[in-house]
Amino acid sequence: MVSVRYYGPSADFTTKTEEKLTSIKTISALVQHFETEYSVNFADYVRNNCGICVNLEYIDLNEDSEMTLSEEDEVAIIPPVSSG
């Protein structure tokens, strides 16, 4: 079961801080889940604005979209960070 943690606006949008998913096997399947479960807008927000970490390591969504996820993996959706 893949654990997905949501931070910042993604937690607000999903109304969850975490969820466990059993049928997700790749990063691209996870993004597809976002599109079908929440909305195209949320999937686009994740694709274009958020960092994605798998087991505390950032991945490149374009290069690693077919990365295989295992049952113990933890994925974090990290909102954009700004400084001022």
TrEMBL record:
<dbReference type="InterPro" id="IPR016155">
    <property type="entry name" value="Mopterin_synth/thiamin_S_b"/>
</dbReference>
<dbReference type="InterPro" id="IPR044672">
    <property type="entry name" value="MOCS2A"/>
</dbReference>
<keyword id="KW-0547">Nucleotide-binding</keyword>
<dbReference type="InterPro" id="IPR003749">
    <property type="entry name" value="ThiS/MoaD-like"/>
</dbReference>
<dbReference type="Pfam" id="PF02597">
    <property type="entry name" value="ThiS"/>
</dbReference>
<protein>
    <submittedName>
        <fullName>Molybdopterin synthase sulfur carrier subunit</fullName>
    </submittedName>
</protein>
<dbReference type="InterPro" id="IPR012675">
    <property type="entry name" value="Beta-grasp_dom_sf"/>
</dbReference>
<dbReference type="GO" id="GO:0006777">
    <property type="term" value="P:Mo-molybdopterin cofactor biosynthetic process"/>
</dbReference>
<dbReference type="GO" id="GO:1990133">
    <property type="term" value="C:molybdopterin adenylyltransferase complex"/>
</dbReference>
<dbReference type="GO" id="GO:0000166">
    <property type="term" value="F:nucleotide binding"/>
</dbReference>
